[in-house]
Batch of 3 targets.
Target 1
Amino acid sequence: MTDLRLPLHQHQIPASPLVLGCMRFGGEWDGLPITDDLVLEGHHAVEAALEIGINHYDLADIYTRGKAEHVFGRILSERQGLREQIIIQSKCGIRLVGDDEGPQRYDSSGAHIQASVDGILTRLGVDYLDILLLHRPDPLAHPQEISEALARLHHSGKVRHFGVSNMGSEQIRLLQLNCTVPLIVNQLEMSLDKIGFVEAGVTVNRPQAKDNVFPYGTMEYCQAEHIQLQAWGPLAQGRFTGRVVEGQRPEIEHTARVVHRIAGERGVTAESVVLAWLMKHPAGIQPVIGSIRPERIRACRDATRIELTRYEWYELYSASCGRRM
């Protein structure tokens, strides 16, 4: 369970163990206007999240091409007092095709970071972000330029805390060596389907390590430096809880049976078991639930009240990787 604590209006509030990912707010990535129905859909998702104790919300400036933040801003304006009760994080650093005449690319220049934050705050209708994440590693990143941009944002009060997304330990280390503000979050894809974060350690000095793309040492580095690990895609698009995906790994079906058996034995939902497997890791992973469906969000309600045994955890891990330890 996460121990991430952020100061909001002179109060220390603990971040909820689960985060609601708002990537699907605002409908399609089509540039069409936001309708009242899309705002209502967002309200229902936030209501479901609040019901199960979620106070941490994850966005990005590119989600549905800015519409996700517009919708969330409407929700904040229509639910008086909500802003003071929650943690809002957003991301920047990706330029999508169609934003200008250039290619789709990453952009961690100081000017882009500053302009992105100004846009995020405008769309949300708020004065500050609790956390800003750099969305993807930029090969042309200049750590000192990033440091200066983050320092300006912090000094101005526009952003209170900073982190990264999809970065390995050495990339974070280089940034942190140059940054005067601490990096407190790293968000990565981790789930029962994407088990590279476990395999990176388990397969050290073994042939299987050559096929793993997860950056070795990242889990350990973040633990050592007290960087909160967040998992995007933690429910694996429903692969273990009922959704059938064409061409999926044969191990998925077996793992799904184990998930449902454990859920039945524990009297909890299958979604909660999938999340509890992640949260069993000693790094204190914070899953970011990416659904906008209220019933799907509520199905995660038991994840924080159960703790899998070592036997159950290894049974699920072995089923997913498809081999004996």
Note: The longest strand covers residues 159-165.
Target 2
Amino acid sequence: MTTTETAGTAGARAAPAWRGGFGRLWTAAVVSRFGDSLRTAALPLLAASLTDDPLLIASVTACGFLPWLLFGLLGGAVADRVDQRRAMWAVDLLRGALMAGFAAAVALGHASLPLLLAVTFALTTLQTLFDNAATALLPALVPAGTLAGANARLMTGQQLAGGLLAAPLVPLLLLAGPAVPYAADAATYVLAALLIASLRVPAPARPPRPAGSTLRAETAEGIAALRADRDLRGLCVATTLCNIGVGVLIATLVVHVTDGLGAGEAGYAASVTAYAAGAVAGGFAARRLARRTGRIRAILLAGAAQTGCLVLLGAVPTLAVTIAALAVFGLLGTVWNVHQTTLMQERAPEGMLGRVAAAFRTLAVAGTPLGAVLGGAVAAGAGPHAPAFLAAALFALAVASLRPLIN
């Protein structure tokens, strides 16, 4: 058993206390995810009302990935330089102001596609700093042995708020007015900012930076630290392969369900809901699995089982199998994400967690749009069920790349 697995098994035994700041951070994260999900569910509908060009509509989603590729590494370097708590509440206040202005524009009938693209790009750019700072802040709020439990509770709450509660509310909110989902999102940002600002966390103690140190040089240090850690490097490669597979699945799932299965919009909604429900359940399963196997093995087992779900999805094209496979796939995805994040927090060098997380995320996020393009091409050339097999092959490669880490 590797050192990582020994530490991971011990760390899987404890759950964090809600007091001491974690409860407020959890509430802020869940409230913010709820608002984000309202916005992301409503934006494509607004885009479709402004244009019937599929490429232009898809470009709104693409703007949610592009800033990670352009600024993700920079966001990590900044997160390691500043007080993460202050950076997070300041970013949320700014995002709240942006969304309030956008809601006002929609309410007054001034929405346009360029405005949608600009707002989406700006929000995701700010998110690169927020997410990296949040990853670096969590270890200061909970004991080291409870990191896995803390990550599991955070992800479970976010999946519950975003995947199961927010999306069904969007049609009701839109009945009250086209700007209501965006105004609600603005309010959640402000509430999250107030909760984070109330945390009493001492400013991180960092050694003085060398004279002449630049953000570029510090970013390179984060990349070098990721490359130097065998487990994190291997996990980053595996996660990138999986994200390509996830991109394949996300881009073609609606075609698989509505055209391939003939299940229509109701079938697609049931499939997406099953995935979200499984992801919530995964938060409860993550620590239990790692307690028995260690963190790396838990990730490997989750990836292997997800591969089977994808094969089943393509080989048995029925709605019942699709719903069941996606529920299990979502559960195992949360298991993977919980222990991936925890390993980063445990193994990143002191004072470099923001940069290591940024390097990891930037490469991993790049896989999703690449997978979406591949999935669309495969679906067009080989039929609506073929992308599931491509996704399964990518997950199998990811699992194979992890296998040396447990020797």
Note: The chain has 15 helices and no strands.
Target 3
Amino acid sequence: MQHSTILPERVMAKAAGAMRHLAHRMRSERPGHVVRGAKALIAASLAWGVAAPWSPGGSPYLAVATALLMVNASTVYQSVTKAAQNVVAKLAGLVLALATAWLFGVTAGSVAVIAVVAVLGGPRRRTDDRLQIASTAVIALAATATAPVGSLVVPVLQTLTGAVAGIAVNALVLPPLYVDESEAAVREVAHSVGALLRDMGDGLAERNLTAKAHTWLHRARTLEKRLTHAEERLRQADESLRWNTRCVAHARRKDVTYGEAFRILRGATLQVRGIARTLADNAHDHHADHHLGQQFLDRYAETLGLAGAAVQEFVEPGAATGSSGASRDRLRGAIDGVLVWHDTMTQLIGRGSLTKPGAWYVYGSLMTDVERLLADLDYADAR
């Protein structure tokens, strides 16, 4: 009886948590939705007002549809490129329809010619453009049977009008910027890398190498997904700064897309994967004389903890930018601590003071990975 009452309570708790998460997400995304809705309304009204007086029947629906498409592009740059592609495709379709009607008349054969020329004649990488050309040509071909040829130019003019309206509104009314999103994505990578380094350090200090080595390796391999996500956000941020009128008021943001920090973190991720792979291989090496000595593991655990702190401090304000502050001091302290340890361990290995001399190549691999990781952070900090 008690079990049957606990289960519904858990279900209700999970449902309540999901509702709270959804409500928080809606609150956080509401301003963006309001801005996009307002921009769409302005662009549609502008396109209608400009195109209605000279459109047949006073209904410029194609202009409004094109304006909505352009104003909702994720960046101003995409608005312009999409508009150019759309207008060019419409013009190409109109020219193809007129040429086909003049040569073959409005027949089924003309439709077949349009399909062959439009679908097979263009670059294969631009499938959407070729299909748009074909559909425009077929519609224009059908219209030539009942309407004057001059009236076929109206859809192209409506498309051009809607494109200009959508681009203008998207560029002048709070054009989208994604610098904050790119910063958050880069910080997420840094915190994930730092957390893994610290967890590996804690695991080594607690003598859990064999039990957790493969878990660390799996986590290190999944860091690639975070890198891909961050790289996409950086690309979007860079693109959003192109032709963006807000950059005039926020010129300093042009230099803050976190590309340099991302490149450093990409290298750090490779080193972390190397460390995790070496530890996993050593944990399951059947040669006892290849196992790492506990003296080395204890010191290496401290090193990984310092390296994890250094990676996380690297993306804190004042650290990656090279300005003075507590974050930069902590980053500098972590780097210096690891470099001192590295010199000490190099001397011990050189004198043969470490146990398990058969694992010398493992010592070297682990030390080299940490040295490269900290060297990259040190170089970025110095800059």
Note: The radius of gyration is 31 Å.
